Amino acid sequence: MPTSAAPTASAPSGRPLPPAVLWDMDGTVVDTEPHWIAAETALLASHGATWTHEQALALVGSALPDSGRILSAHLQAQTGVVLSSEDIVEHLLQSVIAQLAAGVVWRPGALELLRSLGEAGVPCALVTMSYRSLADAVADLLPGVFRVVVAGDEVEHGKPAPDPYLLAASHLGLDPTACVAIEDSPTGVASAEAAGCHVIACPHMVPIPAAPGRTRVASLASVDLDVLAAIGAGEPVDEFADVTSTA
Predict the structure, then answer these.
(1) What does 198-231 look like in DSSP terms, one character per residue?
(2) In angstroms, what is the C-alpha Rg of the chain?
(3) pLDDT at residue 2 in the model
(4) How far apart are CA 207 and CA 52, in angstroms?
């Protein structure tokens, strides 16, 4: 049975830490979003179709079957070429895995925060819309860091549905409302919030609007254990709140 029992780990301030932190992968832990965009653009171009940066950004954070269907329809409408969404997704996955093999770029502050959580004994889960093949490729680079990995091909409904985060919390034996989730896209934030998690939104490729109770940070480098304790206690912070137009 899921539980929201008080965690045993504490921040340096002495405040209790959340019982788990649930991490998005693409754009949050690793900087793979440019790889996905490059793979999409190259695949469509190889069949004579165009794909704009704005169109690519609209897919950031989406479930891969949804992205595959959109790309398949776009390709057929532009060129008449028919590729199944499944074939498109598999091609994109292999392209991104190959790009990661050539070198991994970690998102600022991610490894440091993961290390701090590990030292404090707070379990972490990886909750990604990438399929198991890519999720494992990233998790294997950080052995022992993620107690649970939920991949996009293991849930019936992907982000923005709450299913991925509900499943991760269930695997950890926790109530999702006690957990903190970290996301970089509006789609991912919607998923984590729908599951009831406290959410840290760290925008990368796509802006994330303000909302009541939503934490937004410019970089995970500004998130430490004390900040996590506050967010887990329902005390959000918004580093963008004071950024207003001077026009």
Answers:
(1) EEEE--SSS-----TT-EE-S-GGG--HHHHHHH
(2) 18
(3) 54
(4) 18
Q: Which token pair is 20?
A: 């788990």
Encode pLDDT of 111-135 as tens digits.
999 999 999 999 999 999 999 989 9
Read out DSSP for 136-196? HHHHTTSTTTEEEEE-GGG-SS-TTSSHHHHHHHHHHTB-GGG-EEEESSHHHHHHHHHTT
Quick check: 191 pLDDT over 80?
yes
Cβ–Cβ < 8 Å for 40, 89 = no
3-class SS at 21?
Answer: strand
100-110 per-residue burial string, b: 16 or more CB within 10 A, e: under 16: beeeeebbebb
Contact 90, 130 (CB under 8 A): no
Determine the length of the chain: 247
User: Starting from the edge strand earliest in sequence, which strands make up the sheet with 21-23, in order?
Assistant: 146-150, 124-127, 21-23, 180-183, 198-201, 215-216
Our CA dihedral for 28, 184, 152, 135, rounded to 10 degrees, sits at -10
- Shortest CA distance to 15 belongs to which of 236, 247, 228? 228
pLDDT band for 243, please (50, 70, 90 cuts): low
Query: Which residue numbers are catalytic?
Result: 24, 26
For the chain, list the domains and their CATH numbers. 21-31+106-232 (3.40.50.1000), 33-101 (1.10.150)
What long-range pairs does 49-56 form, CB within 8 A, spacing at least 24?
Answer: 49/74, 49/75, 49/78, 49/79, 49/81, 50/78
Hey, what are 142's tokens?
């950080």
Beta-carbon contacts of 115 under 8 Å, excluding residues fewer than 6 positions away, are none
Q: Give, for 126, the enclosing helix (H) or strand (E).
A: strand 124-127
